[in-house]
C-alpha cells in the first residue's frame, strides 16, 4: 500500500555523515492482562459452512541495513535535514533476526471489516517459555479493552465498536504512552494531535477474529466513492511504530531512504499482511488478499493476483488459493526472500475467520494463518477458540509449523 510522501531529501552517506545510530529504544514490555479463556459467541447467521483454512509461512526473514529515523535536532545526530528542517539519522541494523519486524510495530485496519475479538501474545522472555496475553479486545465488552489503544475513525472519542467501514482506518497499538517531545527516540513533536503510544516489540502473535463483507452490506462507509482505490478493499497492515506516530507518510518519516522517491519504500517500509487490492485496473480483485513486506531489505512476498484469480468457481471450503492453477492450494505455502508463496488467501465475505499473524524472532519466521471457527486444527486447540491468558511454548511452535489446508 504505497502512499505519496511530501518530503524531498536524501540522507548523506558520504564521509561527512554522523556515526551510525547505536539503536532505537525498544520500548516497554507489555504486562500480562487479566482474562482469557473465553471463546467467541456467534449467531447462526454469522457462520458459513466450515472451510479448510490456509497458511503462508515466510522463512529466513530479516537482514542488516539501515533506514532514516527522525531525531530531535537539539540532540541529533542529523545525517540530513529536509526542506522543512526535519532532522533524520541513519538507524543502523546489524541483526538479521526478523529485522525490522522485531521492532515496535503498530497494526492498521482498513474496512470494510467487522471484528469479534483481537488479542496479542508475547513471550515472557525472548527464549523458549510461556507466552502471555498482553492485549485483548472483545465485542461483548467493547469498552473494556486491555493493553490496547485505538486511534482513527473517531475511536478516540467513541471507542472501538468492532465495525470499520470501507476506506476507514483504525490504528491499533499498546496502551503504553510514547513520550513525544524533546529527546524522544525516535523523535516526535510534543503531543498536540492526540495520544501517541508504543507498538509491540520483539516476538508477537496477533489473533483477530473477523469477517470482511462487501461494502454495500456493511455500511459505516468513510467514503461512498466506488471508484476510489481503497473502496471495498479491507487491509491489515503492520508498520514500524515510528511511521505511524509521525502521521504515517507526513513530511518527516522513515518509509523511504529518499522520500522524494517514496514509491521505492526502501526505508522502514511496511508489511501488507492481508490486503485486498482495488486499483481500478487489471490488479483489482475484491475477493483475494495479497501479502508482501518491503523495506531496506527488499521485497518479500507476492502482489495481487488480479482478475486472473476468479473465485466464483471455487467452493466455500477454499481459504487458500494456488495462484498458478486458481484451485485450492494442495498444502500450506512456504516462502522466503528469494521465493514467493505462490498462494493467496481468500477474503471471508460471508462468515468469520481467525487471522493469525506470528512474528517469531528466534526462528526468523513469519507465519500467517486463516482458520474457520468450526474447523480449528487440533495442534492449535490450546489457543483457539479459548484465547487463554497464557500459552505454552509448544503451542507457539504448533502455530509456527501449522500447514493448511494440509
From TrEMBL:
Keywords: Lipoprotein. Residues 56-123 form the Cell wall protein YJL171C/Tos1 N-terminal domain. It comes from the Bacteria. Residues 15-54 are annotated as: Disordered. InterPro entries: YJL171C/Tos1_N. This is DUF2403 domain-containing lipoprotein.
Amino acid at each position: 500500500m504505497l502512499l505519496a510522501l511530501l518530503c524531498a531529501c536524501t540522507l548523506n552517506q558520504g564521509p561527512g555523515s554522523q556515526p551510525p545510530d547505536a539503536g532505537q529504544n525498544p520500548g516497554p514490555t507489555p504486562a500480562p492482562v487479566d482474562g482469557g479463556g473465553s471463546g467467541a459467541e456467534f449467531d447462526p447467521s454469522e457462520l458459513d459452512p466450515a472451510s479448510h483454512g490456509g497458511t503462508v509461512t515466510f522463512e529466513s526473514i530479516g537482514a542488516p541495513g539501515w533506514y532514516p529515523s527522525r531525531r530531535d535536532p537539539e540532540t541529533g545526530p542529523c545525517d540530513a535535514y529536509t526542506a522543512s528542517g526535519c532532522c533524520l539519522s541513519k538507524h543502523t541494523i546489524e541483526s538479521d533476526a526478523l529485522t525490522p519486524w522485531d521492532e515496535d510495530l503498530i497494526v492498521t485496519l482498513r474496512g470494510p471489516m467487522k471484528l469479534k475479538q483481537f488479542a496479542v501474545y508475547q513471550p515472557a522472555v525472548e527464549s523458549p517459555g510461556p507466552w502471555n496475553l498482553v492485549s485483548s479486545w472483545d465485542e461483548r465488552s467493547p469498552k473494556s479493552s486491555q493493553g490496547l489503544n485505538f486511534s482513527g475513525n473517531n475511536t478516540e472519542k467513541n471507542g472501538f465498536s468492532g465495525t470499520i467501514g470501507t476506506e476507514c482506518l483504525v490504528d491499533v497499538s499498546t496502551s503504553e504512552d510514547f513520550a513525544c517531545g524533546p529527546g524522544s527516540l525516535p523523535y516526535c513533536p510534543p503531543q498536540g494531535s492526540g495520544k501517541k503510544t508504543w507498538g509491540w516489540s520483539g516476538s508477537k502473535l496477533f489473533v483477530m477474529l473477523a469477517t470482511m463483507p462487501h461494502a454495500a452490506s456493511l455500511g459505516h462507509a468513510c467514503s461512498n466513492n466506488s471508484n476510489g482505490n481503497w473502496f471495498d478493499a479491507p487491509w491489515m497492515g503492520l508498520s514500524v511504530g515510528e511511521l505511524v506516530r509521525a502521521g504515517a507518510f507526513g513530511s518527516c518519516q522513515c518509509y523511504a531512504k529518499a522520500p522524494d522517491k517514496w514509491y521505492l519504500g526502501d526505508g522502514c517500509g511496511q508489511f501488507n499482511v492481508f490486503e485486498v487490492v482495488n486499483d481500478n485496473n487489471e490488479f483489482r480483485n475484491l475477493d483475494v488478499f495479497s501479502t508482501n513486506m518491503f523495506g531496506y531489505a527488499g521485497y518479500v512476498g507476492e502482489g495481487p493476483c488480479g482478475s486472473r484469480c476468479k473465485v466464483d468457481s471455487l467452493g466455500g471450503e477454499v481459504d487458500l488459493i494456488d495462484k498458478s492453477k486458481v484451485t485450492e492450494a494442495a498444502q500450506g505455502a512456504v516462502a522466503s526472500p528469494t521465493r514467493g508463496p505462490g498462494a493467496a488467501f481468500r477474503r471471508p465475505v460471508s462468515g468469520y475467520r481467525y487471522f493469525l499473524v506470528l512474528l517469531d524472532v528466534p526462528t526468523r519466521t513469519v507465519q500467517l494463518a486463516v482458520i474457520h471457527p468450526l474447523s480449528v486444527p487440533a495442534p492449535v486447540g490450546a489457543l483457539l477458540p479459548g484465547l487463554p491468558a497464557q500459552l505454552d511454548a509448544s503451542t507457539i511452535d504448533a502455530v509456527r509449523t501449522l500447514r493448511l489446508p494440509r
